[in-house]
Amino acid sequence: IKRVSANRTILMVEHNLNVVANLSDTITVLTRGQVLAEGDYATVSSNPEVRQAYMGAGDA
Fold it and tell me: Taking the alpha carbons of 25, 30, 34, 39 in that order, is the dihedral positive or negative?
């Protein structure tokens, strides 16, 4: 994917965070059809709203 995406925009739907981290320059996280967060992996994965919605942070 990295090789064929040079100088192109690729839209990918993926829930495996390891894949997302390795392939993406910019990540847009959606919830219920609305943008929840956008940025690089470090920014998005540390966003408290993203962590709560997709990683279950704080759930007991």
Answer: negative
Does pTM surpass 0.70? yes
- Residue reference for tokens 């320059």: 25
Quote the number of domains for the chain: 1
- Contact (Cβ atoms closer than 8 angstroms) between residue 4 and residue 26: no
pLDDT tens track, the chain, 60 positions:
778 777 888 888 988 888 888 988 899 999 889 999 999 999 998 999 998 887 676 554
- Do the beta carbons of residue 41 and residue 50 sit within 8 Å? no
Q: Which amino acid is at 15?
A: H
Contact residues for 20 (Cβ-Cβ < 8 A; gap 6+) = 14, 27, 41
